[in-house]
Design brief:
Elements lengths: L6 E6 L3 H12 L5 E6 L2 H9 L12 E4 L8 H10 L8 E5 L4 H9 L4 E4 L4 H18 L9
Parallel strand pairs: 1-2, 1-3, 3-4, 4-5
């Protein structure tokens, strides 16, 4: 990530409470993070493809993806993104309530870069979000990607 440049994060999550907890966890960040939120898989794909009403959206540096979404399921979003050459480099962290082995295996099989089970409880949830931030936004070196 370029110092001083805002990190663009797309959160695909239909639970307003989880969105609020994520915002709270990121608000004390030393990094500049622009958190964009959509509440279903269809909107996520429109966001990524710059289709209305998301024609002017930035390319995300990271996607936080729930699996259980309305309209287009998170698994399908994952598959579509990871089979599209222009979107494939964007890292996707699956953040979901499921700890089922089948979901974990399928997500990695579809190209997820990371799989995190949402913890129960505010403190643990905040800790997980901050861990994701620390790892994906300060430790990992990501390729430079041109805007879509």
């Amino acid at each position: 990530m370029t110092p001083g440049k805002a990190i663009q994060v797309l959160m695909v999550e239909d639970d307003a409470g989880d969105v609020q907890l994520t915002r709270e966890a990121l608000k004390d960040s030393k990094l500049i993070i622009d958190l964009h939120v959509v509440d279903d898989g269809e909107k996520a794909l429109k966001f990524l493809r710059h289709q209305p009403p998301f024609a002017q959206t930035p390319r995300p540096d990271l996607i936080l993806l729930d699996l259980n979404l309305p309209k287009v399921d998170g698994r399908e979003v994952l598959q579509i993104v990871k089979t599209d050459a222009s979107l494939r480099p964007i890292p996707i962290v699956v953040v979901t309530t499921s700890d089922a082995d089948a979901d974990i295996e399928r997500s990695y099989g579809l190209g997820a870069n990371c799989y995190v089970t949402k913890p129960i409880g505010l403190d643990q949830f905040v800790k997980v979000v901050r861990s994701i931030e620390e790892f994906w936004m300060t430790v990992v070196k990501l390729p430079s990607m041109p805007p879509l």
